[in-house]
């Protein structure tokens, strides 16, 4: 309930209680004062009457009763004369003939008191008159008692008019006090109420709301203190909000998934990357076990929280994805028990695995020629072979050295291209010229296998590129074609203009490449059938170099082939025009 209403009710109750109390007090006092006044009057009249009665009874006994009745009527009271035994001798309110039959009055308290001490008084209900009366009795010589009684109501009726005036004045005063009090209470409580309302609105988040300045000095001081509190609160909130935004921004931009968990391993906070990694939109408040669905992943968190120390684990999800999970235990006392960082290291792992494969492949490729050279050198040194045998061994050493040099050259090329350190020296190249010149370089090799070139070259077709590198591409393709074409086979060179591109293809009628192998042949060291490399030595790097150089030029390379029906390698380069 409002303060103002409470004050008003309190004042109302107080005013009503005060009015009631005052009226009751007034009534009682007036009644008492009136009765005392009557008693005093009656006692004086009793004295007079006692004297008159003594004289009448002695001088005019026959008229004494009627004189008594006249006196009682003029005094507006009842007069009773009682003898020493309590018998009623005269009573002005009773017909004379009934007086003798009246009840003995010796036991009446005022009569008894008068006998004992000369006078006596009493207030009580009179059965004879059927109303409240005041009695006064006085003994006089002859042991008789004279008693006067008056009706209280009769006397009070006179006072009632004054009483009502006073009662009305009391009620009006109390009402006025109530009105003044409640107005003052409202005036006092109103500013406090609006201050409270404003403070509640601010607490509910309405920080723009200002505190009112109305009311007395104390209220104004209170409002000013509130205002200062509000300002410093707003400053603190602003600071906290900007720090929260900064933290949120950092967390959101973090390339790793981040999750904060409590003792029960429920998520308290997480960033968007974590949500994306686990594939659940809103992880906050949920149990980590439901989110991760992986025992080993969940266990890293469980162990960290139980052991209070940092744990790290690499987790493989299926064949492809690899996560590195680091969970750091947080000091006790806060809501959070641990913070976990989930890093997707799939690419890193893949690179690492490629590096391992690469080293293994290079070692493997070098081991064969080195072993051959070592064996040949040993035979030459120890077995003293005949000149023909020596010549054969020296030739073997030469070929294996060439093969190693070729391998190392290819590796160097590839490393350079892959590192991105290759600067293309571009110029406009006539495709026909490039193909013819390169084919010429292979004329001896082709002749050795009776291979013929079939050329279908578009004249005036140009591309923009690095002549040396593109010639390396064509060389690798023609080399493979001659290598794989059968004795007396055909190598087809074709160039054509396509929309926005120039295409160059090198085909042969060799063994072809199975579909399942066609993607893999562009990988480093990949050779379809390593047993073939005995007859057609190669490094497995040629096509890989082709792919990289063509990509550097913004072009593509593809293979069309069926097992047993030859192969066709086609490169497309952006048109120079
Ligand atoms: P290599 O030096 O072994 O020829 P490449 O990268 O040039 O290495 O070729 C990779 C593999 O692709 C070869 O080992 C071979 O199995 C296959 N290949 C390449 N060109 C042809 C072709 N014209 N006909 C059939 N197979 C080919």
In angstroms, what separates the terminal alpha carbons? 89 Å
What is the strand tally? 17
Overall pLDDT: 88
Which oligomeric state applies? single chain
Low-confidence stretches: none
State the helical fraction. 55-70%
Features of this protein?
single chain; 577 residues; alpha+beta; five-stranded antiparallel sheet; binds adenosine-5'-diphosphate
Please characterize this protein's 3D structure.
The protein has about 575 residues and is α+β, with helices and mostly antiparallel strands. Helices cover about 55% and strands about 20% of the residues. Strands 2-1-5-4-3 form a 5-stranded antiparallel beta sheet, sandwiched between helices. A 5-stranded antiparallel beta sheet has the order 7-6-10-9-8, with helices on both faces. Helix 10 runs antiparallel to helix 11. The radius of gyration is 65 Å and the shape is rod-shaped. The model has no long low-confidence stretch (mean pLDDT about 90). The chain binds adenosine-5'-diphosphate (ADP). The site of adenosine-5'-diphosphate (ADP) has 20 residues, from helix 14 and helix 16.
């Amino acid at each position: 309930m409002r303060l103002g209403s409470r004050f008003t009710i309190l004042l109302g109750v107080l005013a009503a209680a005060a009015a009631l109390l005052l009226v009751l007090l007034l009534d009682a006092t007036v009644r008492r004062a009136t009765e005392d006044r009557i008693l005093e009057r009656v006692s004086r009249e009793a004295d007079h009457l006692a004297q008159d009665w003594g004289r009448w009874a002695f001088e005019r006994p026959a008229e004494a009763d009627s004189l008594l009745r006249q006196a009682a009527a003029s005094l507006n009271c009842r007069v009773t004369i009682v003898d020493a035994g309590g018998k009623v001798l005269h009573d002005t309110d009773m017909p004379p003939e009934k007086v003798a039959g009246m009840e003995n009055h010796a036991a009446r308290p005022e009569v008894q008191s008068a006998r004992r001490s000369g006078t006596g008084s009493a207030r009580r209900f009179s059965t004879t008159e059927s109303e409240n009366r005041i009695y006064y009795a006085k003994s006089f010589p002859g042991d008789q008692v004279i008693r006067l009684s008056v009706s209280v109501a009769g006397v009070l009726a006179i006072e009632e008019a004054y009483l009502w005036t006073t009662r009305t004045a009391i009620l009006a005063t109390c009402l006025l006090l109530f009105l003044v009090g409640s107005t003052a209470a409202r005036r006092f409580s109103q500013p406090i109420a609006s201050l409270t309302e404003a403070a509640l609105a601010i607490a509910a988040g309405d920080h723009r709301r200002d505190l009112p300045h109305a009311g007395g000095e104390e209220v104004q001081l209170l409002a000013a203190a509130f205002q200062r509190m509000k300002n410093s609160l707003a400053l603190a909130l602003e600071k906290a909000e900007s720090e929260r935004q900064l933290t949120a921004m950092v967390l959101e931009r973090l390339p790793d998934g981040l999750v904060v968990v409590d003792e029960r391993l429920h998520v308290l906070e997480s960033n968007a990357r974590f949500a994306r990694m686990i594939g659940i939109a809103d992880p906050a408040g949920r149990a980590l076990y439901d989110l991760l669905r992986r025992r080993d992943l969940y266990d890293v968190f469980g162990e960290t929280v139980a052991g209070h120390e940092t744990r790290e684990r690499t987790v493989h999800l299926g064949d492809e994805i690899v996560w590195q999970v680091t969970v750091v235990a947080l000091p006790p006392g806060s809501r959070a028990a641990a913070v976990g960082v989930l890093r997707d290291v799939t690419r890193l792992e893949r690179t690492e695995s490629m590096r391992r494969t690469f080293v293994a492949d290079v070692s493997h490729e070098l081991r064969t020629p080195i072993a051959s050279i070592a064996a040949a050198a040993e035979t030459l040194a120890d077995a003293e072979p005949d000149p023909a045998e020596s010549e054969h061994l020296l030739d073997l050493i030469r070929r294996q050295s060439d093969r190693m040099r070729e391998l190392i050259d290819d590796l160097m090329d590839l490393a350079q291209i892959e590192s991105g350190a290759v600067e293309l020296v571009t110029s406009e190249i006539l495709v026909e010229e490039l193909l013819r010149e390169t084919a010429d370089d292979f004329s001896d090799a082709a002749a050795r296998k009776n291979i013929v070139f079939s050329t279908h070259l578009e004249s005036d077709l140009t591309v923009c590129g690095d002549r040396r590198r593109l010639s390396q591409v064509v060389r690798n393709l023609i080399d493979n074609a001659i290598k794989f074409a059968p004795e007396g086979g055909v190598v087809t060179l074709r160039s054509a203009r396509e929309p926005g591109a120039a295409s160059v293809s090198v085909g042969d009628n060799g063994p072809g490449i199975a579909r399942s192998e066609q993607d893999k042949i562009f990988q480093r060291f990949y050779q379809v059938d390593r047993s073939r490399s005995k007859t057609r030595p190669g490094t497995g790097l040629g096509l890989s170099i082709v792919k990289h150089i063509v990509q550097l030029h913004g072009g593509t390379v593809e293979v069309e082939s069926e097992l047993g029906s030859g192969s066709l390698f086609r490169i497309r380069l952006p048109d120079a025009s």
